Amino acid sequence: MSETGFCPELSDDVREVRDWVHDFARSVVRPAGAEWDEREETPWPVIQEAAKIGLYSLDFFAQQWFEPSGLGLTVAFEELFWGDAGIGLSIVGTGLAAAALSAGGTPEQMGEWLPQMFGTPDDVRLGAFCASEPDAGSDVGAIRTRAVPSGDDWIINGVKTWATNGGIADVHVVVASVDPSLGTRGQASFVIPPGTPGLAMGRKFSKHGIRASHTAEVILDNVRVPGSCLLGGREKLDARLARVRSGERAGEQAAMRTFETTRPSVAAMAVGIARAGYEYARDYAREREQFGRRIGENQAIAFLLADMATRVDIARLMTWRAAWMARNNRAFGQAEGSMCKLVAGEAAVWVTEQAIQILGGAGYTRDHPVERFHRDAKIFTIFEGTSEIQRLIIGRAVTGLPVR
Fold first, then answer.
1. pLDDT on residue 37
2. If 43 and its partner were Cys, which of 21, 36, 116, 251 is the partner (CB 3.0–4.6 Å)?
3. What is the DSSP track for 97-135?
4. Dist CA 155 CA 222 (whole Å)
5. What is the pLDDT of residues 110-155, one digit of tens each?
6. What is the domain extent for residue 356?
7. CA distance 1 to 232
Protein backbone atom coordinates (compact mmCIF):
# COMPACT_ATOMS: atom_id res chain seq x y z
CA MET A 1 0.00 0.00 0.00
CA SER A 2 1.63 3.23 -1.16
CA GLU A 3 2.07 6.07 1.31
CA THR A 4 1.45 8.62 -1.42
CA GLY A 5 -1.61 7.16 -3.10
CA PHE A 6 -4.15 4.36 -3.08
CA CYS A 7 -3.02 1.02 -4.48
CA PRO A 8 -5.49 -1.91 -4.64
CA GLU A 9 -3.02 -4.52 -3.44
CA LEU A 10 -3.81 -6.52 -0.32
CA SER A 11 -1.08 -7.25 2.18
CA ASP A 12 -0.39 -10.83 3.24
CA ASP A 13 -2.05 -10.15 6.59
CA VAL A 14 -5.24 -8.86 4.98
CA ARG A 15 -5.32 -11.81 2.58
CA GLU A 16 -5.03 -14.15 5.53
CA VAL A 17 -7.96 -12.45 7.28
CA ARG A 18 -10.00 -12.52 4.06
CA ASP A 19 -9.47 -16.25 3.61
CA TRP A 20 -10.18 -16.98 7.28
CA VAL A 21 -13.48 -15.05 7.27
CA HIS A 22 -14.44 -16.54 3.90
CA ASP A 23 -13.99 -20.04 5.30
CA PHE A 24 -16.26 -19.20 8.24
CA ALA A 25 -18.83 -17.62 5.91
CA ARG A 26 -18.74 -20.63 3.59
CA SER A 27 -18.88 -23.36 6.23
CA VAL A 28 -20.99 -21.76 9.00
CA VAL A 29 -22.85 -18.66 7.83
CA ARG A 30 -24.11 -19.56 4.37
CA PRO A 31 -25.57 -22.96 5.33
CA ALA A 32 -27.56 -21.26 8.11
CA GLY A 33 -28.79 -18.30 6.06
CA ALA A 34 -32.13 -19.63 4.84
CA GLU A 35 -33.12 -21.02 8.26
CA TRP A 36 -32.54 -17.80 10.20
CA ASP A 37 -34.11 -15.69 7.45
CA GLU A 38 -37.22 -17.82 7.78
CA ARG A 39 -37.18 -17.71 11.59
CA GLU A 40 -36.60 -13.94 11.72
CA GLU A 41 -34.68 -14.36 14.96
CA THR A 42 -31.23 -13.37 16.18
CA PRO A 43 -28.91 -16.29 15.29
CA TRP A 44 -27.29 -16.62 18.70
CA PRO A 45 -25.62 -19.97 17.93
CA VAL A 46 -23.84 -18.48 14.91
CA ILE A 47 -22.78 -15.37 16.83
CA GLN A 48 -21.41 -17.63 19.54
CA GLU A 49 -19.47 -19.64 16.97
CA ALA A 50 -18.04 -16.37 15.65
CA ALA A 51 -17.09 -15.40 19.20
CA LYS A 52 -15.39 -18.73 19.84
CA ILE A 53 -13.02 -18.31 16.89
CA GLY A 54 -12.40 -14.64 17.71
CA LEU A 55 -14.34 -13.17 14.80
CA TYR A 56 -16.96 -11.58 17.06
CA SER A 57 -14.64 -9.85 19.50
CA LEU A 58 -13.36 -6.42 20.41
CA ASP A 59 -9.82 -7.54 19.59
CA PHE A 60 -10.73 -8.51 16.03
CA PHE A 61 -12.64 -5.29 15.34
CA ALA A 62 -9.86 -3.17 16.84
CA GLN A 63 -7.09 -4.98 14.95
CA GLN A 64 -8.86 -4.62 11.63
CA TRP A 65 -9.89 -1.02 12.33
CA PHE A 66 -6.27 -0.05 12.88
CA GLU A 67 -4.90 -2.26 10.10
CA PRO A 68 -2.46 0.05 8.24
CA SER A 69 -4.06 -0.10 4.78
CA GLY A 70 -7.58 0.52 6.07
CA LEU A 71 -8.85 -2.52 4.18
CA GLY A 72 -9.06 -5.01 7.04
CA LEU A 73 -12.70 -4.48 7.99
CA THR A 74 -13.92 -3.90 4.44
CA VAL A 75 -12.42 -7.16 3.23
CA ALA A 76 -13.76 -9.07 6.24
CA PHE A 77 -17.24 -7.59 5.88
CA GLU A 78 -17.42 -8.41 2.19
CA GLU A 79 -16.71 -12.07 2.92
CA LEU A 80 -19.13 -12.25 5.83
CA PHE A 81 -22.00 -10.70 3.85
CA TRP A 82 -21.15 -12.90 0.89
CA GLY A 83 -22.18 -15.68 3.27
CA ASP A 84 -25.46 -14.11 4.39
CA ALA A 85 -26.42 -10.51 5.02
CA GLY A 86 -28.88 -11.07 7.87
CA ILE A 87 -26.48 -13.21 9.86
CA GLY A 88 -23.61 -10.94 8.86
CA LEU A 89 -25.37 -7.89 10.28
CA SER A 90 -26.21 -9.75 13.47
CA ILE A 91 -22.46 -10.35 13.89
CA VAL A 92 -21.21 -6.87 12.97
CA GLY A 93 -24.14 -4.74 14.18
CA THR A 94 -22.37 -4.03 17.45
CA GLY A 95 -19.64 -2.36 15.41
CA LEU A 96 -21.82 0.69 14.72
CA ALA A 97 -22.26 1.33 18.44
CA ALA A 98 -18.55 0.73 18.93
CA ALA A 99 -17.76 3.23 16.17
CA ALA A 100 -20.02 5.83 17.79
CA LEU A 101 -18.32 5.32 21.13
CA SER A 102 -14.85 5.46 19.57
CA ALA A 103 -15.69 8.59 17.57
CA GLY A 104 -16.88 10.64 20.55
CA GLY A 105 -15.79 8.92 23.73
CA THR A 106 -12.86 9.51 26.03
CA PRO A 107 -10.18 6.83 26.47
CA GLU A 108 -11.71 6.00 29.85
CA GLN A 109 -15.18 5.58 28.32
CA MET A 110 -13.85 3.36 25.55
CA GLY A 111 -11.95 1.25 28.06
CA GLU A 112 -15.06 0.76 30.16
CA TRP A 113 -17.80 0.26 27.59
CA LEU A 114 -16.25 -1.32 24.48
CA PRO A 115 -15.51 -4.64 26.21
CA GLN A 116 -19.06 -4.71 27.57
CA MET A 117 -20.45 -4.39 24.06
CA PHE A 118 -18.85 -7.67 22.97
CA GLY A 119 -18.55 -9.74 26.13
CA THR A 120 -16.67 -13.04 25.93
CA PRO A 121 -17.11 -16.30 23.98
CA ASP A 122 -18.87 -17.73 27.06
CA ASP A 123 -20.98 -14.62 27.63
CA VAL A 124 -21.72 -12.91 24.32
CA ARG A 125 -22.97 -9.31 24.56
CA LEU A 126 -24.34 -6.85 21.99
CA GLY A 127 -24.22 -3.11 21.39
CA ALA A 128 -26.78 -0.85 19.68
CA PHE A 129 -26.52 2.62 18.16
CA CYS A 130 -29.77 4.58 18.38
CA ALA A 131 -30.06 7.67 16.20
CA SER A 132 -33.15 7.41 13.97
CA GLU A 133 -36.60 8.33 15.26
CA PRO A 134 -40.14 7.96 13.90
CA ASP A 135 -39.98 11.56 12.61
CA ALA A 136 -36.21 11.78 12.16
CA GLY A 137 -34.68 9.28 9.76
CA SER A 138 -32.48 10.99 7.21
CA ASP A 139 -33.28 14.32 8.87
CA VAL A 140 -31.20 13.95 12.03
CA GLY A 141 -31.88 17.59 12.79
CA ALA A 142 -35.43 16.57 13.69
CA ILE A 143 -34.34 14.37 16.60
CA ARG A 144 -36.71 14.91 19.54
CA THR A 145 -35.14 12.62 22.13
CA ARG A 146 -34.10 15.01 24.88
CA ALA A 147 -31.34 14.79 27.44
CA VAL A 148 -31.70 17.19 30.38
CA PRO A 149 -29.06 17.67 33.10
CA SER A 150 -30.11 16.79 36.63
CA GLY A 151 -27.28 17.56 39.02
CA ASP A 152 -24.37 15.41 37.89
CA ASP A 153 -26.74 13.09 36.00
CA TRP A 154 -28.71 13.30 32.75
CA ILE A 155 -32.35 12.32 32.24
CA ILE A 156 -33.22 11.08 28.76
CA ASN A 157 -36.70 10.77 27.22
CA GLY A 158 -37.68 9.80 23.71
CA VAL A 159 -38.30 7.03 21.19
CA LYS A 160 -35.69 5.61 18.82
CA THR A 161 -36.49 3.42 15.85
CA TRP A 162 -34.78 1.20 13.26
CA ALA A 163 -32.15 0.32 15.87
CA THR A 164 -30.06 -2.76 15.06
CA ASN A 165 -29.96 -4.83 18.28
CA GLY A 166 -32.30 -2.24 19.82
CA GLY A 167 -33.70 -3.37 23.15
CA ILE A 168 -31.75 -6.65 23.24
CA ALA A 169 -28.32 -5.02 23.39
CA ASP A 170 -26.42 -4.82 26.63
CA VAL A 171 -25.02 -1.36 25.86
CA HIS A 172 -26.95 1.30 23.91
CA VAL A 173 -25.43 4.48 22.50
CA VAL A 174 -28.18 7.08 22.10
CA VAL A 175 -28.09 10.40 20.24
CA ALA A 176 -30.16 13.06 22.02
CA SER A 177 -30.74 16.78 21.85
CA VAL A 178 -29.31 18.78 24.75
CA ASP A 179 -30.27 22.15 23.22
CA PRO A 180 -33.08 21.88 20.63
CA SER A 181 -32.62 25.52 19.59
CA LEU A 182 -29.27 24.59 18.02
CA GLY A 183 -30.58 21.77 15.81
CA THR A 184 -27.97 19.13 14.97
CA ARG A 185 -25.29 21.23 16.63
CA GLY A 186 -27.08 20.89 19.94
CA GLN A 187 -26.94 17.10 20.04
CA ALA A 188 -24.79 14.71 22.04
CA SER A 189 -24.38 10.96 22.47
CA PHE A 190 -24.85 8.98 25.68
CA VAL A 191 -24.04 5.46 26.77
CA ILE A 192 -26.95 3.67 28.43
CA PRO A 193 -25.45 0.97 30.69
CA PRO A 194 -26.91 -2.54 30.94
CA GLY A 195 -30.02 -2.81 33.08
CA THR A 196 -30.67 0.93 33.29
CA PRO A 197 -34.30 1.51 34.41
CA GLY A 198 -36.54 3.20 31.86
CA LEU A 199 -35.00 1.72 28.70
CA ALA A 200 -37.23 -0.83 27.01
CA MET A 201 -37.73 -2.41 23.62
CA GLY A 202 -40.73 -1.19 21.71
CA ARG A 203 -41.95 -2.72 18.48
CA LYS A 204 -39.76 -5.32 16.79
CA PHE A 205 -39.96 -4.91 13.02
CA SER A 206 -40.77 -7.68 10.54
CA LYS A 207 -38.64 -6.81 7.54
CA HIS A 208 -38.40 -7.41 3.80
CA GLY A 209 -34.78 -8.56 4.15
CA ILE A 210 -31.87 -8.99 6.61
CA ARG A 211 -34.41 -10.84 8.74
CA ALA A 212 -31.86 -12.54 10.99
CA SER A 213 -30.77 -9.12 12.22
CA HIS A 214 -32.87 -7.74 15.08
CA THR A 215 -34.37 -4.30 14.35
CA ALA A 216 -36.63 -2.58 16.87
CA GLU A 217 -37.78 0.59 18.60
CA VAL A 218 -36.10 1.67 21.80
CA ILE A 219 -38.21 3.50 24.37
CA LEU A 220 -36.46 5.86 26.80
CA ASP A 221 -38.72 6.82 29.70
CA ASN A 222 -36.98 9.02 32.28
CA VAL A 223 -33.74 7.15 31.79
CA ARG A 224 -31.22 8.48 34.29
CA VAL A 225 -27.52 8.06 33.55
CA PRO A 226 -24.48 9.49 35.36
CA GLY A 227 -22.48 12.31 33.80
CA SER A 228 -19.74 9.82 32.97
CA CYS A 229 -22.07 8.38 30.30
CA LEU A 230 -22.00 11.59 28.21
CA LEU A 231 -19.55 10.79 25.41
CA GLY A 232 -16.62 13.16 25.56
CA GLY A 233 -17.64 14.56 28.93
CA ARG A 234 -19.51 17.66 30.12
CA GLU A 235 -16.59 20.06 29.77
CA LYS A 236 -16.11 19.23 26.11
CA LEU A 237 -19.86 19.51 25.44
CA ASP A 238 -20.16 22.89 27.17
CA ALA A 239 -17.20 24.24 25.22
CA ARG A 240 -18.72 23.05 21.93
CA LEU A 241 -22.13 24.55 22.69
CA ALA A 242 -20.49 27.85 23.67
CA ARG A 243 -18.71 27.97 20.31
CA VAL A 244 -21.96 27.31 18.48
CA ARG A 245 -23.82 30.01 20.38
CA SER A 246 -21.07 32.50 19.57
CA GLY A 247 -21.33 31.69 15.88
CA GLU A 248 -18.20 29.54 15.57
CA ARG A 249 -17.98 26.15 13.91
CA ALA A 250 -18.41 23.23 16.28
CA GLY A 251 -17.34 20.22 14.24
CA GLU A 252 -19.49 17.41 12.91
CA GLN A 253 -22.77 16.35 14.47
CA ALA A 254 -22.59 13.13 16.52
CA ALA A 255 -24.75 10.86 14.33
CA MET A 256 -23.27 12.14 11.07
CA ARG A 257 -19.73 11.61 12.32
CA THR A 258 -20.57 7.99 13.08
CA PHE A 259 -22.20 7.38 9.69
CA GLU A 260 -19.31 8.98 7.80
CA THR A 261 -16.86 6.76 9.66
CA THR A 262 -18.75 3.56 8.86
CA ARG A 263 -19.84 4.19 5.24
CA PRO A 264 -16.95 2.25 3.62
CA SER A 265 -17.69 -0.71 5.90
CA VAL A 266 -21.39 -0.59 4.99
CA ALA A 267 -20.46 -0.37 1.31
CA ALA A 268 -18.31 -3.48 1.74
CA MET A 269 -21.35 -5.35 3.07
CA ALA A 270 -23.25 -4.43 -0.10
CA VAL A 271 -20.32 -5.56 -2.24
CA GLY A 272 -20.47 -8.95 -0.52
CA ILE A 273 -24.15 -9.37 -1.35
CA ALA A 274 -23.63 -8.24 -4.95
CA ARG A 275 -20.76 -10.69 -5.37
CA ALA A 276 -22.83 -13.52 -3.93
CA GLY A 277 -25.60 -12.85 -6.44
CA TYR A 278 -23.21 -12.55 -9.37
CA GLU A 279 -21.30 -15.74 -8.52
CA TYR A 280 -24.45 -17.79 -8.05
CA ALA A 281 -25.89 -16.62 -11.38
CA ARG A 282 -22.56 -17.19 -13.14
CA ASP A 283 -22.29 -20.75 -11.87
CA TYR A 284 -25.92 -21.43 -12.77
CA ALA A 285 -25.35 -20.12 -16.31
CA ARG A 286 -22.37 -22.45 -16.73
CA GLU A 287 -24.48 -25.52 -15.93
CA ARG A 288 -28.08 -24.77 -16.98
CA GLU A 289 -28.95 -25.99 -20.47
CA GLN A 290 -31.72 -24.74 -22.72
CA PHE A 291 -32.23 -25.48 -26.40
CA GLY A 292 -29.25 -27.80 -26.42
CA ARG A 293 -26.60 -25.51 -24.95
CA ARG A 294 -25.61 -23.86 -21.67
CA ILE A 295 -27.40 -20.56 -21.19
CA GLY A 296 -24.09 -18.81 -20.49
CA GLU A 297 -23.21 -19.33 -24.16
CA ASN A 298 -25.97 -16.90 -25.13
CA GLN A 299 -24.78 -13.32 -25.56
CA ALA A 300 -27.79 -12.01 -23.66
CA ILE A 301 -26.69 -13.92 -20.55
CA ALA A 302 -22.93 -13.51 -21.03
CA PHE A 303 -23.22 -9.75 -21.53
CA LEU A 304 -25.42 -9.45 -18.47
CA LEU A 305 -22.87 -11.38 -16.40
CA ALA A 306 -20.14 -9.13 -17.78
CA ASP A 307 -22.02 -6.05 -16.56
CA MET A 308 -22.66 -7.69 -13.18
CA ALA A 309 -18.98 -8.54 -12.70
CA THR A 310 -17.98 -5.02 -13.73
CA ARG A 311 -20.34 -3.36 -11.27
CA VAL A 312 -19.11 -5.55 -8.42
CA ASP A 313 -15.50 -4.61 -9.16
CA ILE A 314 -16.31 -0.90 -9.49
CA ALA A 315 -18.10 -0.94 -6.15
CA ARG A 316 -15.26 -2.81 -4.45
CA LEU A 317 -12.56 -0.48 -5.76
CA MET A 318 -14.49 2.63 -4.71
CA THR A 319 -15.05 1.08 -1.28
CA TRP A 320 -11.36 0.24 -0.87
CA ARG A 321 -10.38 3.74 -1.91
CA ALA A 322 -12.67 5.33 0.68
CA ALA A 323 -11.51 2.92 3.40
CA TRP A 324 -7.87 3.70 2.58
CA MET A 325 -8.56 7.44 2.64
CA ALA A 326 -10.29 7.20 6.02
CA ARG A 327 -7.45 5.18 7.54
CA ASN A 328 -4.82 7.58 6.18
CA ASN A 329 -6.67 10.70 7.31
CA ARG A 330 -7.39 11.84 3.77
CA ALA A 331 -10.36 14.18 3.67
CA PHE A 332 -13.38 13.06 1.65
CA GLY A 333 -13.11 16.15 -0.55
CA GLN A 334 -15.47 14.71 -3.16
CA ALA A 335 -17.64 12.84 -0.63
CA GLU A 336 -15.85 9.59 -1.43
CA GLY A 337 -17.46 7.90 1.58
CA SER A 338 -20.93 8.67 0.25
CA MET A 339 -19.84 7.74 -3.27
CA CYS A 340 -18.82 4.23 -2.31
CA LYS A 341 -21.95 3.65 -0.25
CA LEU A 342 -24.18 4.91 -3.07
CA VAL A 343 -22.48 2.86 -5.79
CA ALA A 344 -22.20 -0.33 -3.74
CA GLY A 345 -25.77 -0.20 -2.44
CA GLU A 346 -27.28 0.34 -5.87
CA ALA A 347 -24.97 -2.27 -7.41
CA ALA A 348 -26.16 -4.84 -4.88
CA VAL A 349 -29.81 -4.22 -5.75
CA TRP A 350 -29.21 -4.29 -9.51
CA VAL A 351 -26.87 -7.28 -9.56
CA THR A 352 -29.09 -9.45 -7.38
CA GLU A 353 -32.12 -8.55 -9.49
CA GLN A 354 -30.26 -9.65 -12.62
CA ALA A 355 -29.30 -12.86 -10.85
CA ILE A 356 -33.00 -13.61 -10.40
CA GLN A 357 -33.58 -12.83 -14.08
CA ILE A 358 -30.86 -15.23 -15.18
CA LEU A 359 -32.37 -18.04 -13.12
CA GLY A 360 -35.83 -17.19 -14.42
CA GLY A 361 -38.75 -18.69 -12.53
CA ALA A 362 -36.37 -20.72 -10.37
CA GLY A 363 -34.74 -17.52 -9.16
CA TYR A 364 -38.08 -16.24 -7.89
CA THR A 365 -38.48 -19.21 -5.56
CA ARG A 366 -36.79 -19.98 -2.28
CA ASP A 367 -35.24 -23.06 -3.84
CA HIS A 368 -32.36 -20.74 -4.73
CA PRO A 369 -30.83 -18.02 -2.52
CA VAL A 370 -30.85 -15.20 -5.09
CA GLU A 371 -34.33 -14.01 -4.07
CA ARG A 372 -33.03 -13.67 -0.50
CA PHE A 373 -29.91 -11.87 -1.73
CA HIS A 374 -32.17 -9.40 -3.53
CA ARG A 375 -34.37 -8.81 -0.48
CA ASP A 376 -31.29 -8.31 1.67
CA ALA A 377 -29.70 -5.91 -0.82
CA LYS A 378 -32.50 -3.35 -0.82
CA ILE A 379 -31.74 -2.01 2.65
CA PHE A 380 -28.38 -0.74 1.40
CA THR A 381 -30.10 2.00 -0.58
CA ILE A 382 -31.98 3.03 2.57
CA PHE A 383 -30.17 2.69 5.90
CA GLU A 384 -27.20 4.75 7.08
CA GLY A 385 -28.21 7.38 4.54
CA THR A 386 -30.56 6.73 1.61
CA SER A 387 -29.27 6.90 -1.95
CA GLU A 388 -30.95 10.28 -2.22
CA ILE A 389 -29.10 11.58 0.84
CA GLN A 390 -25.81 10.27 -0.55
CA ARG A 391 -26.45 12.12 -3.81
CA LEU A 392 -27.25 15.27 -1.82
CA ILE A 393 -23.94 15.02 0.05
CA ILE A 394 -22.02 14.32 -3.16
CA GLY A 395 -23.81 17.15 -4.96
CA ARG A 396 -22.83 19.62 -2.27
CA ALA A 397 -19.23 18.39 -2.35
CA VAL A 398 -18.78 18.63 -6.12
CA THR A 399 -20.60 21.96 -6.58
CA GLY A 400 -19.61 23.72 -3.38
CA LEU A 401 -23.21 24.95 -3.24
CA PRO A 402 -25.87 24.50 -0.52
CA VAL A 403 -27.86 21.96 -2.53
CA ARG A 404 -31.25 21.18 -0.93
1. 98
2. 36
3. HHHHHHHH--HHHHHHHHHHHHEETTEE--EEEE--BTT
4. 6
5. 999 999 999 999 999 999 999 999 987 667 778 999 999 999 999 9
6. 254-399
7. 33
Q: Is 235 marked active-site?
A: no
Active-site residue among 78, 79, 371, 384?
A: 384
Residue 219 sits in the same domain as residue 284? no
* pLDDT tens for each residue of 64-83: 999 999 999 999 999 999 99
- The CATH number covering residue 154 comes to 2.40.110.10
Q: 3-state DSSP call for residue 292?
A: coil
Which spans in 246-298 are helix H? 254-287
- Do 222 and 112 fall into the same domain? no
Residues 320-348 pLDDT 10s: 999 999 999 899 999 999 999 999 999 99
Q: Note whether residue 1 is domain-resident.
A: no
Name the residue among 122, 124, 120, 102 with its Cα closest to residue 111. Answer: 102
Q: What is the pTM of this model?
A: 0.93
Neighbour count for residue 49 (Cβ, 10 Å): 19
